[in-house]
Structures are given as structure tokens and as C-alpha cells.
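Follow-up to my earlier ticket, as requested here are the two runs.
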Amino acid sequence: MFSFIDILLIAVSLSADAFFTTLGVVGAKPIRRQTFRLSFHFGLFQGLMPCLGWLAGKSVAGFLDRIDHWIAFAILAAIALNMIREAAHPRTRQSPGDRSRGWSLVTLSLATSMDAFSVGVVFGVVGQSILYPCFVIACVTGALTFIAARLGRRIKSRLGVQAEIAGAVLLLIVAFRMLLM
């Protein structure tokens, strides 16, 4: 099973998308409501998606007992490599208006939490309990989104792509640890 440190590393890694999306959404000085909406929704979606993935993973876990650690490794490694690829080739789309509201916010919340669904599948396949990891993932994502919203452009200009790659590396470390289980 995953230790607290593993779950924390996963949570930080999964939060990278929400963190950088927040940097792209907020202006130079975000308003409090915008900060709350982004933190709440990104944390909520990041916390719920592993639950859905866990249900999917539990449904196939019995068939995969012998290779579950390899499946977990492959999924986590693929997520991490995709994060590195996206960091190396950032999309620079700008949408008009406040993207921290309405369907735009829901779409951003879903898009940043798709990796969390895959991690939930891993939890289900390996038999990890789900409520505690979901809570940790939601809290970490909400907190990091809040930080990104409050510090805005200063963080973006200093950390940039390196922070997203660091999150991917953390996820790769967890993936390789799965092979040792």
C-alpha cells in the first residue's frame, strides 16, 4: 500500500496542472472570489476523480493480481511522462473573459483532474483505500491553487516549466517504488 509520503508526493504531482492553470487564469492581482472559486473547484475535482478511478480499478482488480504493480507503474509513469511532454510544449491559448466562472471553470477543473482519475485506477487495482488519499489530494490541490492565485505572475516568471517537471519527477519516483512493492 501507499505510505503517507507516497500519497503526498502523488498529491503534489497531481496539483501541478491546477497550479499552473491557476497562474494562467488569474490576473496580476486576483480578487478573493476568483481565488476561492479556483481553489475550491480544483481541489474538489482533484479529490473526486480518484474516487471514480478507484471504482473502475476495483472492478478489474481481481483479474490483475499478478501484474497490478506493473499496471500501476505503467499508468503513473505515463502520467509523469505526459506531464513532462506538456511542460516542454506549453499551449499558449488565451480565452477572453474570466475563466474562473461557469462552464469555463468546470472545463478547467475536469481537464486538470484527468490524471487524478488514472491515479484512482491505480489505487483500485492495488487495493488501496481511497478516502484518505482523496482527502489529501483535494487539500493539497486546494492549498497549492490558493498559493498560485495569491502569488500569481511572480511565481510563473520564477518557476515556470521547472516546477511542472519537478512534479512529474516526483510521480516517476512513486511509479518506480510501485515496482518494489
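Run two:
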Amino acid sequence: MATAGYFRTSAHIDLNALEENYRSIAALVGPGVTLLPVIKADAYGHGAVRAGLRLQSIGAGYLAVASIDEAMELRKNGVSCPILVLSGVMPWEDVRIFVENDVTPTVIGFDSLERTAAHKSPKPLKIHVKIDTGMGRLGFSLGDLGTLLEQLRRMEERIKVEGLMSHFASSELRDDYGTGQVDAFRGALESFRNAGIEPRFVHMANSAAICDYPEAHFTMVRPGIMLYGSYPDKSLRGMVRLKQVMRWTSAVSYVRTLPALSSLSYGRTHVTQRETRVAYVPLGYADGFPRSLSNRGSVLIRGKRCRIMGTVCMEWVLADVTGVADVAPGEEVVIIGASGQETITADEIADLAGTIPYEILCGVSRRVPRLYG
């Protein structure tokens, strides 16, 4: 099958699969829990604007991004639902942009709280307060709760605590450390309630914790990698049915038949042991295909797994098509997705590359066009 279009490689984004994943996660957590889809990093490489618009259209009441720049891209392109900026107001940013565009900042420390409360708006700005229960990254320490609650009470005319949140250090496998974090967060929530502050949204669970820590669902959860069809850990595969949202393809550029003992690509890391038909695919690490898959990974051509031979180049990979009859220039090459009865997932590539599917999906270069369907 010839690949469509004029692109050397392209990522086909199935928004229907994104919607199905969203609904599967919603069914898992139940009707009393709000989903906060995380669409930071350009929706993990899938395109934040199109993902945000689709999620908004099916009822997502809130979206999460990493920065005010990401929030503004959504606002400028028609996303009107509430947006939470996970990093809050940075030292070099003006809180007015949050106020003027109805964007909710996360407050991650006392400096962050002062910057956020410095606005001149006549009405309080909604905030989510982050508590560090053991991640050791962002958030107020448990020992700061007394001082924090005093300051929040003094600032109640300028800020409104809409949400209270925390983050797991390692939620892929349930353990005592994780349950300890949940207990610590519950204690922080109780302190807020005793101080007369009742957050509407209480959230701690990311994708893995949605599966592993049902007691941490509270009133909101933050699905990220699950939305896009990948699992945060091998152990969680199958706990919820997900569909891969991205189908990444390229095409055969040309085919050569090389004799035995021919060396291939940089460093001569592969030498043919027999006469070999080689398909040359205009795909490389500049597109986000990991160089660590040299002599290890595969692509799909005509429903067959074709092993990568030699070093992955910036612009090229070489695939062994000796066992695939009549492969010709223009043939579709599947990098992520299905072909015939075979499928390659981002999870599989991550396993081979020694990384996580987040990095694979986020790493698909911006020069790879996203085509939506």
C-alpha cells in the first residue's frame, strides 16, 4: 500500500481513539470523579489544540498544561474551558496574564503564592495549592501547613483555593511509600478543612495511580499517558482498555539488493551474512526515532516485521525486507501502529530503547506533520 501525501514521515492522530480512552478512564474512576486531562508538551506530541478541542467537546471540564505559554496557545485557538497551569506563575511572568485569560495557576511555594496574590483584579483568582507529600520536587512541605493556612486566610480577598493537589513519587507499583503519601495528603486536606477551606477539586492520582491507588482518586484525577493509549508501566497493561492514538508512518524510498559481507550505515555496525534486500526509509533520530534502536528495532512493511540493520541515522533507517516479496518504493512503513496482524506500540519502542513511552511520544519531532482523523 502506498503512503498518502507528500510527507517523508507523518503522525496520524486518531481523535476518536483519544475520546474512547477518555471515556474508558471515566468509567474506571466512576461518576463522582472529575477528569483533568493532561495535555502538556503538545499533548505528549499529539497536538494540544486539536486534543484540547476534542476533549472539551465531549465534556472535559478542565485541562492541564505545563506553562502559561501552553495555556495561551489553547486560548488563542478556541479552548474556553478552565485550564490549570501545573507550574504556576514563574518569577519572570506577570500574574495578569492568568487573570485576563481565566487561567488557573498552581501555587507551589511561598514565593509562588506572593506572585499569584499580587494581581489587581477585583475578584479572587482561583488557585490550586500543591502539597509535597514525598515527591521532593514542587509544593509546600507538610511542616509549612500552619504558616500556609494563615497566609491563605489573609489573602482570601485576592485568591480562592479551588483545588488541593499532590503528586506521587512512584505510582507504577503500589508500595508503603505511596500509601504513606496518600495518608499525608489526607492529613493536609483535613488541615485545610479544619481551617475552613474546602477545595472543590482534590487530586493526586496520575495515570498509574488511577489504576494502583483507587483511594487516591478523591474528587479529581489527572490522566496523561493513558489518554494517548500507552501504559505508565508494563504491570498496568490490561487494567483498562486503551487504544493507541498515534499511528506514525513513513514510506520506502528505494530498495537495493546487497551481497553477503556488505557493511551497512555508520560505524559498520551491521555486516550482511547473506544476500540481503534492504529498504531505505527516510526516517531518523531527527524525526524522533531513537538511535538506540540501531540493529534492534523493527518497522512494519506489508504486515511483516522488518528488522532495522545498522546505525539509525539522522535522516535514514535501513530495514531488512529479504523476506517480504516485491517491496517497492512508495510502500507504507509503519513505525507506531498496526499493519496486517502486526502492531508496534510506543510502549514496545520504549522497552527496546530503555526508556518510557512518554519520551517516545513527546520526542516525535515537530517536523513530522500531524494528520488528524
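The only thing I checked on run two: The CA atoms of residues 262 and 272 lie 5 Å apart. Let me know what else you need.
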